[in-house]
Each structure stands twice: as C-alpha cells, then as structure tokens.
Amino acid sequence: MPVLCSSCSEKRAVLKRPKTGHSLCKACFFWAFEEEVHQTIVAAKLFRSGETVGIAASGGKDSTVLAHVMKLLNERHGYGLELMLISVDEGITGYRDDSLETVKRNQQQYELPLKIVSYEELYGWTMDAIVKQVGLKNNCTFCGVFRRQALDRGAIMLKVDKICTGHNADDVAETVLMNILRGDIARLRRCTAISTASEGDGVVPRCKPLKYAYEKEIVLYAYFKKLDYFSTECIYSPNAYRGYARTFLKDLESIRPSSIMDIIHSGENLSVREGVKMPVQGTCSRCGYISSQALCKSCVLLEGLNRGLPKLGIGKHHRLHGKILSQQPLTEHEQRKLKSVDF
Ligand code: SF4
Ligand code: ZN
C-alpha cells in the first residue's frame, strides 16, 4: 500500500523527513523546508527591507540551496532585499575552477549579480602554491582564515549590507562539538549565533539562514528540485579533526536524529562564568582587519608564507608580532623553529 503524505493526505509520500520522521509528498516537503527557513529568518530578524545581501556561493549544495531559497522567499514574502552572489576563488585546480563554473551557471539561472574574489589577487598566493609550501597538514587553516577576509573584501567591493552563508545545522552542531573538544570558550560562545553584528571596519555582518536546516534535508531538497550544484570534495581536504567530529555526529544522528538540534540548543544555552578571560578585539596594525593581536591571523600567515616560515601563523607566536611589524630580523633559533613544515 502506498503511504500517503501525512501533511496533505492526498498525494503519495515520496520521502521521510530526516528532521521529523514525517512521510511527505514532494510539494509538502518543499513547502515545509522553505517555510522553516522563512521562520528562522523572521524569528531572528535577519534582514531589513531595502538591504543588499550578498550570498556566499561556492557552487556546493548548501550555498546553491541557500541562493535558491533566498530568491524564492524574497519574492514570496516580499522581503524587499537586493540579492547578490559572492564567490571566493581559492585557486585550487581541479576543484574550485570547476565549482566556479557551477556558480556562474547559478548566476544565469537565478539572474543575480556575481562577484568573484581570488586569493591570488588579494594575497598573491593560490591554495595550490600554499599547499606546495606547507604541505597537506595545516592548509585548511590558511584557507579558512583567508576565506573569511576575502568574503568581507568582496562584500565591501559590492557594497552589501550583510553576507549570508550556507552553514547548516550539521555544520553548527559539528562546530559546537569541536569547540568543546578543544576547550575554545571564545569560539564556543560565538559559534551558535545566527548572526554577527559588524565587529569593526572592514567586517560585514553575517548570518546563517540555514542554521536549523539538516544537511540531509538540504541534499533531498537540492535533489528533488534538480538544482545545479557541484558535489566533489576539495582535493586538499585532510581536515581530520572536523572529519572525526562529523563522523561522531552522524553516528549520533543515526541513533537519534534530534541529536543535531539538541547539540545546537546546548551550545546556545551555555553561558560563560564571570571572570573568564576572553580575547579583546582590536584591529590589525598592518591591514586594519579585526584582530585580538597586534597583527591579524591573515597577515601573520601571509608573512610566514612570504618569508618561507610557514609555521609563523600556526600555534602561538604572538610575541613575534612586534618583531614582524618593525621588520626586525628573527633569531636563527626562531627561524629554525618556524621553518619546519612538520607542524
Ligand atoms: Fe580550503 Fe581546506 Fe576547504 Fe579545501 S578543504 S577549500 S583547502 S578549507
Ligand atoms: Zn592584518
């Protein structure tokens, strides 16, 4: 006997919602998924009418679904937003060049303006060149730090008021777990926030409209809507630590699907005891970007690359910032320590 959709009771159910276990037809699933994102946007007051919003687009499933749903909800509910796509080209041959082709097709399909900012143009280094120098161990640290700043730079060039990213519920839960495992209280407190206010000049406020959307549902949505997305993994993705957190989360989800939401709620309700020392945000004295040290992470990583000392930005070498800023030479011992790529 075919199962009927538990929402409309008319059409045949084609899927079981991973988030709720309900059997739904295609149309009812689309509606439920889209309206939940709408509820998230409304409840957290993510946007104001008249704003220009940049959608961080990588060509992957999350950002493709985000672009599709943002365009649809903007029209359906009259948000009054001007939407644009911003992409970062990390310079990864065989991966990003192909996924950017997907973004370019999305731009045509959704009729949205697109801005691509590249690491090469911003930093003088592609990820291909960085991996050649640092190997495959800490490459994602460079990539993550550079991407954050690159998106801000792209957003400023496009004069957008806000950036929205495709982070989904699984990503947020995974980050909560990782920050707990690392004891990173400052990040733990920030990572569940659905939006961040501008933390200073050059930092554009960000938000995550898909924060409560399960990855499995995003995949189903993209599949049933036949969205055009790129599903290959980055060729430099050894980020083992996140991988373990992800596997752990998926195991938990298979036993109890609500685990994802429960971890997010736990993260949201944690409070930091008074008196715990938190980093104080200032600005980088070289590029002006936010930083809790004399130099921002991006400038230190870049300095390390340019000096052939890749370890400079990995780990805690804050005491060297003054020397870098005043262009003082490092001692032989310091150089030796920073030269090894065996992080
Ligand atoms: Fe960059 Fe690492 Fe992601 Fe690849 S896996 S795009 S190197 S952060
Ligand atoms: Zn800087």
Automatic annotation (TrEMBL):
It comes from the Eukaryota. CDD domains: CTU1-like. One of its GO terms (molecular function) is nucleotidyltransferase activity. The lineage of its organism: Eukaryota, Metazoa, Chordata, Craniata, Vertebrata. Keywords: ATP-binding, Cytoplasm, Nucleotide-binding, RNA-binding, Transferase, tRNA processing, tRNA-binding. It holds the Pfam family zn-ribbon_14. It is an enzyme of class 2 (transferase). This is Cytoplasmic tRNA 2-thiolation protein 1. Its EC number is 2.7.7.-. ATP binds at residues 56-58, 62, 88, 166, 171. It comes from Poecilia latipinna (sailfin molly). Belongs to the TtcA family. CTU1/NCS6/ATPBD3 subfamily. The keyword Nucleotide-binding applies. Residues 282-312 form the Cytoplasmic tRNA 2-thiolation protein 1 C-terminal domain. The keyword RNA-binding applies. One of its GO terms (cellular component) is cytosolic tRNA wobble base thiouridylase complex. Plays a central role in 2-thiolation of mcm(5)S(2)U at tRNA wobble positions of tRNA(Lys), tRNA(Glu) and tRNA(Gln). Directly binds tRNAs and probably acts by catalyzing adenylation of tRNAs, an intermediate required for 2-thiolation. It is unclear whether it acts as a sulfurtransferase that transfers sulfur from thiocarboxylated URM1 onto the uridine of tRNAs at wobble position.
